[in-house]
């Protein structure tokens, strides 16, 4: 059996108390505690006063609560250490080493140990006292925070019938206020009062809180007079605004420079035509969304490779027109620039803008529209009436109305914005439901026109198509054309000739714009193979004295039968590659034939070779025409103060009489016109006396009906004929009359004598037809060469 010397036991026990490393460890704990107290409490008391920041209260309370927990744990640890020391002392007192060993181990060796125990007890007591004091301070601070700033945690959700969504929004904020940092940016800190402050002062779902500092609304001084727009005479500043860094921007600037003199001459002519009329200068943001990196910017890399340039042509012309009209412009092509100019708060886009929108108008595209919706929060709904969407192919009302599009199967990836349909601005006048923006083609003076006519090569044709894929499968047409004409192409390639282009075609490769213009000035024929649709090149060719030959589509192409149009927010049926050229220009400048009929195709080529044409450009595609059109839109289009539609009629007593109709039967009794005795609103635009009401045939849209009478459909006038009395004036029998949401109404189903009126003004539409209905169509006159404007619209 192993025996242990008693002196050895005593040595071990004394080492546990007197060993220097152990003392250092205990003192280290005390020192750490002191440092922690100085840092934690010093930070607490040196912090900003409560309420200085939306984060202050929450940060201080949470940090102090954690500090209090640490203090308690350290106090418990020191008390436990003190108890263990006391156990050791009692253990030593129970042994017999005090009886005869004082000479070897003097009693004064225990004095340091006793003093150390006393110090540990004192530290533990101090830590415990400090924890109690911190707890009291925190309670007092929290109480002050509750009482300060209107007792922030004692707010109750108001029950105000004027704000029915308040309670639901507060509930949402309780669960989701941390989902976006923008809420904290506006002062939300998780308390009930901060929710109500935000929902009443930043958003508008709750009533103002009575205890908030609501300064008496002193009558604000009248706003200073708006600066007047003055026509500009130099485009240098615009070139700076467009910026650099993208091939697409370089292309647009080259176009602006190339047409600069034509733009300046057109601006002077329009200025003389307006005769010094006063025009307010508008603050306009132009955000080209499809050029942002976030949208992919697929166009810039393709500028030098034959990619589509129609959109960039249009944007360059829009910028030039807005600038020359004298308005203040800001141009952005990045999401970061857009956010900065709009005043978007930091976060994920759920909050409104930090300040009122500084722009009167915003011109953008569908990509930019989506970016604005994602980052403007509720401000998007508030300010969307100021947006103008550049939309190449147009958006019909049936696709624009979100609820209706969802219920009736018209919803696409590009529609359902609930904008006024005229806020969409197209490249060609597809449907009068949208505003026709357009672009410009280069004009020729008399000398240039004569020079072109004398230099024309009667047997030279240029093919419309810079991408090799357009030529694929067109060998039969090209072989027929090659029998009569020398064929030229401008197909892009890098190293070797594209195999889709036959050897007998003289391919120039991708040409700069001015060289392409020179090629068109020599050619007799500009021929399209069905794609691309509705680009600017055919108008440029016609303006340079070419005849444009294009394919007729049978059946017409639409979103129902053609992949290119599938998903686009329109049901428009495209009867040819360029419907505008077919409908608004026509022969002898435009020939539309069935390419599937070789005999018809060959006969058209022979006839074209015998035909002499002069260069021709519609006025609406000149610089002056575009300036005139955009000027009229800016001056007269206002979608932020639209008039409310008349409510459905109520039952009337026999004594009540309907007010006299503003419409009257025309002298030949075929249609309705504005009554001579009816009053006219001098600010109405277009002027109401240009209105004519015609009834369509079944299967005919109002667009076609008005065109057949030499007029254009005007959706603004639908509100005047959306009344039961109009059916009676047109001698239409109505056994019943109903208000419903339908983009074809007002209309009549004659076989059953049922009449229908429009319930939703956003669905008033010139487009659309049905075999069941005859539609009531509002038509107006238009200026020659300017279909977007009536005769008295400027």
From TrEMBL:
It holds the Pfam family Glyco_transf_18. GO terms for biological process: protein N-linked glycosylation. This is alpha-1,6-mannosyl-glycoprotein 6-beta-N-acetylglucosaminyltransferase. Belongs to the glycosyltransferase 18 family. GO terms for cellular component: Golgi membrane. Its EC number is 2.4.1.155. The chain crosses the membrane at residues 21-41. It is a single-pass type II membrane protein. Residues 640-660 are annotated as: Disordered. Keywords: Coiled coil, Glycoprotein, Glycosyltransferase, Golgi apparatus, Membrane, Signal-anchor, Transferase, Transmembrane, Transmembrane helix. Residues 182-779 form the Glycosyltransferase family 18 catalytic domain. It is an enzyme of class 2 (transferase). It is found in: Golgi apparatus membrane. It catalyses: N(4)-{beta-D-GlcNAc-(1->2)-[beta-D-GlcNAc-(1->4)]-alpha-D-Man-(1->3)-[beta-D-GlcNAc-(1->2)-alpha-D-Man-(1->6)]-beta-D-Man-(1->4)-beta-D-GlcNAc-(1->4)-beta-D-GlcNAc}-L-asparaginyl-[protein] + UDP-N-acetyl-alpha-D-glucosamine = N(4)-{beta-D-GlcNAc-(1->2)-[beta-D-GlcNAc-(1->4)]-alpha-D-Man-(1->3)-[beta-D-GlcNAc-(1->2)-[beta-D-GlcNAc-(1->6)]-alpha-D-Man-(1->6)]-beta-D-Man-(1->4)-beta-D-GlcNAc-(1->4)-beta-D-GlcNAc}-L-asparaginyl-[protein] + UDP + H(+). It comes from Aythya fuligula. Residues 253-280 form a coiled coil.
């Amino acid at each position: 059996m192993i025996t242990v010397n008693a002196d050895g036991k005593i040595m071990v026990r004394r080492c546990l108390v007197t060993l220097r490393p152990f003392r250092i460890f205990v003192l280290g704990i005390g020192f750490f505690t002191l440092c922690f107290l100085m840092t934690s409490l010093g930070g607490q008391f040196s912090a900003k006063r409560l309420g200085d920041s939306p984060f202050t209260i929450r940060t201080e309370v949470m940090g102090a609560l954690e500090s209090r927990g640490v203090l308690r744990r350290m106090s418990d640890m020191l008390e436990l250490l003190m108890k263990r020391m006391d156990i050791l002392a009692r253990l030593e007192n129970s042994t017999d080493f005090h009886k005869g060993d004082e000479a070897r181990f003097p009693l004064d060796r225990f004095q340091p140990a006793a003093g150390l125990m006393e110090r540990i007890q004192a530290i533990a007591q101090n830590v415990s006292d400090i924890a109690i004091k911190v707890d009291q301070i925190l309670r007092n601070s929290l109480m002050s925070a509750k009482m300060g700033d209107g007792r922030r945690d004692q707010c109750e959700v108001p029950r105000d019938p004027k704000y029915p969504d308040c309670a639901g929004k507060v509930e949402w904020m309780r669960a989701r206020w941390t989902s976006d940092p923008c809420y904290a940016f506006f002062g939300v800190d998780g308390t009930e009062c901060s929710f109500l402050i935000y929902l009443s002062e930043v958003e508008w779902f709750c009533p103002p809180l009575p205890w908030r500092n609501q300064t008496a609304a002193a009558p604000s001084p009248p706003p200073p007079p708006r600066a007047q727009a003055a026509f500009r005479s130099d485009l240098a500043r615009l070139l700076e605004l467009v910026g650099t860094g993208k091939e697409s921007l370089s292309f647009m600037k080259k176009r602006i420079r190339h047409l600069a003199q034509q733009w300046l001459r057109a601006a002077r002519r329009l200025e003389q035509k307006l005769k010094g009329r006063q025009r307010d200068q508008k603050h306009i943001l132009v955000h080209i969304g499809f050029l942002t990196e976030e949208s992919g910017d697929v166009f810039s890399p393709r500028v030098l490779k034959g990619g589509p340039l129609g959109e960039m042509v249009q944007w360059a012309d829009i910028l030039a027109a807005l600038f020359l009209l004298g308005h203040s412009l800001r141009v952005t092509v990045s999401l970061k620039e857009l956010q900065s100019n709009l005043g978007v708060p930091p976060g994920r886009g759920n909050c409104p803008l930090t300040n009122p929108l500084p722009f009167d108008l915003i011109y953008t595209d569908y990509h930019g529209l989506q970016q604005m919706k994602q980052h403007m929060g509720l401000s998007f709904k508030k300010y969307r009436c100021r947006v103008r969407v550049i939309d190449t192919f147009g958006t019909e009302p049936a696709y624009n109305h979100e609820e209706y599009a969802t219920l009736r199967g018209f919803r696409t990836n590009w529609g359902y914005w609930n904008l006024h349909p005229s806020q969409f601005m197209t490249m060609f006048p597809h449907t009068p439901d949208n505003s026709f923006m357009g672009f410009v083609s280069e004009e020729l003076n008399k000398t240039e026109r004569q020079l072109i006519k004398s230099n024309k090569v009667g047997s030279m044709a240029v093919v419309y198509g810079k991408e090799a894929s357009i030529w694929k499968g067109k060998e039969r047409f090209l072989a027929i054309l090659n029998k009569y004409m020398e064929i030229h192409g401008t197909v892009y390639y890098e190293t070797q000739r594209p195999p889709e282009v036959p050897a007998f075609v003289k391919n120039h490769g991708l040409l700069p714009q001015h060289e392409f213009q020179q090629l068109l000035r020599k050619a007799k024929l500009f021929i399209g193979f069905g794609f691309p649709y509705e680009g600017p090149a055919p108008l440029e060719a016609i303006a340079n004295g070419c005849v444009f030959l294009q394919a007729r589509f049978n059946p017409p192409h639409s979103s129902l039968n053609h992949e290119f149009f599938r998903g686009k927010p329109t049901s428009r049926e495209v009867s040819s590659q360029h419907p505008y050229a077919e409908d608004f220009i026509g022969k002898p400048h435009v020939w539309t034939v069935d390419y599937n009929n070789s005999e018809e195709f060959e006969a058209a080529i022979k006839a074209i070779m015998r035909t002499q044409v002069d260069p021709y450009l519609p006025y609406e595609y000149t610089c002056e025409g575009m300036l005139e059109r955009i000027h009229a839109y800016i001056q007269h289009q206002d979608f932020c103060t639209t008039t409310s539609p008349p409510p459905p009629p109520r039952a009337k007593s026999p004594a009540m009489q309907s007010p006299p109709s503003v419409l009257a039967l025309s002298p030949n009794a075929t249609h309705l016109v504005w009554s001579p005795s009816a009053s006219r609103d001098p600010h109405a635009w277009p002027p109401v006396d240009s209105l004519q009401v015609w009834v369509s045939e079944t299967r005919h849209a109002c667009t076609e009906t008005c065109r057949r009478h030499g007029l254009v459909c005007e959706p603004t006038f639908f509100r005047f004929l959306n009344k039961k009395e109009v059916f009676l004036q047109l001698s239409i029998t109505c056994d019943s009359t109903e208000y419903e949401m339908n983009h074809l109404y007002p209309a009549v189903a004659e076989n059953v004598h049922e009449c229908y009126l429009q319930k939703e003004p956003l669905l008033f539409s010139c487009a659309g037809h049905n075999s069941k209905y005859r539609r009531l169509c509002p038509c107006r006159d238009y200026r020659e060469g300017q279909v977007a404007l009536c005769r008295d619209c400027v």
